Amino acid sequence: MSEKAKVQADYRKQLQEQQEKVKMRMSKVKHKIAVISGKGGVGKSTVTVNLAMAFAMHGYNGQVGILDADMHGPCIPKMLGLHGQRLQAGPPGIFPAVGPLGIKVVSMDFLLPDEQSPVIWRGPLKMHAIRQFLSDIVWGDLEFLLIDLPPGTGDEPLSVMQLLPEMDGNVIVTIPSEVSQIVVKKAVTFSRKLNIPVIGVIENMSGFICPNCGARINIFKVGGGQKIAKELNVPFLGSIPIDPEICEDSDKGVPFIVEHKDSPATKAFIEIVEKIENFLKGKEEVK
What we know:
alpha/beta; Rossmann fold; eight-stranded mixed sheet; two-stranded antiparallel sheet
């Protein structure tokens, strides 16, 4: 065997072993859900964090994990008050950081020397990192693993979809603008081409409710998410109104829905989680 053929054979063996480790780790995770968007700026990471908190508050304390798969702009740790922490390694593998309500978190942010250091990687390196996150992290027994994906349909989303066994589905986040709605179509088509179910569409930043008088102001229009969901024949999960406290709490690393349980936005997150649970129950009944 030539040296080149030997290197190729060794690489294929390594990939196979890594995939077996992914299957082993993920076999302990009951539900795997990706949170995606066709474009940036729609609040996808904020939605991911608050959905995770809503699941934890809904009877799954300590059974929820978040994989921050955004290699270039990881921000989940900051939102959960974990910024600056480091992952700990042990004999079974690498352990996630643990946030509020026992939420387990893995992010590139934990591996960077400081907050100013960028990740200047091409596709193959990013794919390798994602494979390691899935194969080497000791997630343990989880009810839900939410994967926060970067915008678009490129390397990271494709790698996660192809590597994760038995994905339950994708949650697509949009805002009411027509530009965002156009890109949602791409995200739905992306999911369908990879045979990943679309759990539903969430319309974020859907109107502003005045905290003083209760009047609703539709700053970015409203109803676009529901319209595009109907057009594409996918479920509409709900609308999340703008609340300045969401931004402030995210910057402080405080879970919004824990601090503001009576907020209309919190109620929207809880209702969305209930719809996702109903979707998952429906899948299990079909099986």
